[in-house]
Amino acid sequence: PEPEPEPEPEPEPEPEPEPDPDPNARIRITVAVDDWRIDACRWVGDVFRAEARAGAAVIFDLRMLHRGGANKSSQRRPMMYLSYVHEWWVDRVNFNDKQTRNFDDLASPEMKKLLSRQDTRTYTELLEAELIAKGGDPLFLQSNYKYAKNNYKDARGEKKY
Fold first, then answer.
1. SUPFAM superfamilies attached here (predicted)?
2. N or C: which end of the chain has fewer CB within 10 A?
3. How far apart are CA 161 and CA 84, in angstroms?
4. Residues 6+ apart with CB under 8 A from 62
5. Closest Cα to residue 68, out of 41, 89, 49?
6. Coil, strand or helix: which one is 120?
7. Among candidates 71, 70, 72, 61, which has minimal Cα distance to 32?
8. How is the chain split into domains, by residue range?
């Protein structure tokens, strides 16, 4: 009989950050988190950690592996997240589209991936129908901006950006 293969080692838990006397006063961003994903890449250098005080801007390339620290205070910590990206790119990690209840009944992850955009559109249409049924007007909530998709040209065909 062949010997049992050894189990793969569990990844080490991330160390607890040092307590902050005012956890709401700053935002911490770690680039290249030191875990197994980084260890597997020979091009990764040292881990870089940045702290920003309230009101500061942090600018970095979103393609880098990054994460922010948790707000462990009882106070809200508002922040603005802005990405300067190609117009076709959507941050699906941080901003998930809403799906209808029936979406859960789809048979496979592949089917969900295939139909997710259409189901999001259906979800929006259902919400608009509910709003109309309650006497609301969806057009009141919509933008009047008419841009030509995929090129950001105005109605005369002139480039806006």
1. Clavaminate synthase-like
2. N
3. 13
4. 83, 85, 91
5. 49
6. helix
7. 61
8. 22-96, 97-161
Whether pTM exceeds 0.70: no
Report the pLDDT value the prediction gives residue 27, as an integer from 0 to 100.
Answer: 58
Spans of the chain below 50 pLDDT: 33-34
Please report the pLDDT score of residue 82 as a whole number.
83
Contact in structure between 115 and 106 (CB atoms under 8 Å)? yes
Neighbouring residues of 48: CB distance < 8 A, sequence distance ≥ 6: 30, 31, 32
Predicted local confidence at residue 34, as pLDDT: 47
Does residue 33 contact residue 47 with C-beta atoms inside 8 Å? yes
User: What's 26's DSSP letter?
Assistant: E
Tokens of 148: 């030509």
Phi-psi region of 149 (alpha: psi -120 to 50; beta: other; left: phi over 0): beta
